[in-house]
Write a structure and sequence with these properties.
alpha+beta, Elongation Factor Tu (Ef-tu), domain 3, Helix Hairpins, disordered N terminus
């Protein structure tokens, strides 16, 4: 506390000033904020930005170059390699069979539908056989009448012969009775032939399948009339009822270029893969090489027999890929290693492939053998399972970091 003045001559403050002094507000001393916190925040933000920029750099400019890769395949001894591949269609051995009838009348039954699998002897259609049954019954009646005449004339001949032997009847009378008997017997044979004919006609009113197969087209419906001049595509007056495909011998046909036909032989193994079911290969064998080439296409048609077809998915005229397999177990006793053709590079007469290990490229010298449709045989340098670069760049260096991308 400051000492108050005791000098009596010093002037004293007026009462108003003392009141103002008592109302003065004492201010506290404020602390100035520290500059350390903004500096730390700036460092953190700069570090985060640098990390993000570095990550972007690694994903773009700083990323190792991408390379297309493939895995070297490995086959056990005895497995054949693909020597030729072509696109074709599913067919049947007998191609397609048009089943028809020469009978006239109305279709009263046709228990088939397109796509239905049928067996040999199954009913395809039934024609109204009322007229033919009537003719058959008439022929049977005529035969029975002729048989009765035979019985009568036979008795008359027996009596007339006794009279002739006794000298009572003349030879002419005996000859007349014997002639009637012969005519009656001939009539019996005639009407028996008529019975066979009309019975055949009745049986022809039932059209049956001649093969095991599948119904491709159903030409008529129940109630249609079969008459002269109605859809006689089969020729000789035959009216078509249905078109069938023989599924007992499913095949695939493909056009092979003339320059490659020497690679195909009868009995050669093959694989058929439907375009609609690429994961379902079917084993096959070459059964036919057509004797005539197509001059305009420059191709030769080849057929392969599918050994164990799945009729639930294989249908005639489906598109398929046919691969012809070369070699035999005797030829390939050792394992077969195949590398893609585009992975092989040549340098001064030597052949190399680039192998990727731990995301780095290394050049390996190889010795190659026979070429196949799906690769080149490697005799030395690779064992199978390696990842190789397909179409390697000329700028690749030994041990260079790469980013493999499966081709």
């Amino acid at each position: 506390m400051s000492a108050m003045s005791t000098d009596p001559s010093a002037p004293r403050p007026s009462p108003g000033i003392r009141e103002l002094e008592s109302l003065r507000i004492a201010r506290r001393t404020e602390k100035r904020p520290s500059r350390l916190i903004p500096a730390i925040a700036s460092v953190v933000i700069a570090a985060a930005a640098a990390a993000g920029a570095y990550a972007i750099y690694l994903r773009t400019i700083g990323r190792p170059p991408e390379v297309q890769t493939a895995v070297v395949s490995f086959r056990q001894g005895g497995q054949a390699g693909t020597v030729l591949t072509g696109s074709g269609y599913i067919v049947t051995r007998h191609k397609y069979i048009k089943v028809g009838t020469k009978m006239l009348g109305q279709i009263v039954e046709e228990p088939i539908e397109e796509g239905q699998h049928i067996k040999k002897g199954d009913v395809l259609a039934r024609i109204n056989d009322g007229d033919y049954e009537a003719q058959l019954r008439q022929a049977i009646a005529d035969r029975d009448l002729a048989a009765a005449d035979v019985k009568l004339y036979q008795a008359q001949v027996d009596r007339q012969r006794v009279l002739y032997n006794s000298g009572v009847a003349s030879r002419d009378e005996l000859d007349v009775i014997e002639n009637k008997l012969a005519q009656a017997k001939a009539s019996v044979k005639k009407f028996e032939s008529a019975i066979d004919y009309w019975r055949f006609q009745v049986n022809q009113c039932i059209i049956r399948s001649p093969i095991d197969g599948v119904v491709l087209t159903k030409i008529h419906e129940v109630g249609d009339m079969i008459q002269y001049g109605s859809q006689s595509d089969a020729g000789a007056g035959v009216t078509d009822i249905a078109t069938l495909a023989d599924t007992g011998d499913m095949r695939a046909e493909v056009d092979i270029n003339e320059s490659d036909i020497s690679k195909v032989s009868i009995g050669m193994p093959a694989t058929v893969i439907l375009d609609a079911y690429p994961d379902r290969p079917f084993d096959a064998r070459v059964v036919k090489i057509y004797p005539q080439a197509d001059r305009q296409k420059g191709t030769v048609k080849v057929e392969v027999h599918i050994l164990d077809p799945d009729l639930a998915i294989i249908k005639p005229e489906m598109s398929a890929k046919i691969s012809f397999l070369g070699g035999s177990p005797v030829q390939h006793e050792a394992p077969l290693v195949l590398v893609p053709k585009k992975a092989v590079v040549e340098d001064e007469g030597r052949r190399f492939v680039w192998v990727v290990r731990d995301n780095r490229a290394f050049r390996i010298q190889v010795s190659l053998g026979r070429e196949y449709q799906d690769g080149v045989q490697v005799l030395q340098g690779l064992t199978g399972g390696e990842t190789v670069i397909v179409v390697p760049s000329a700028q690749l260096r030994e041990g260079q970091a790469v980013t493999p991308v499966a081709s």
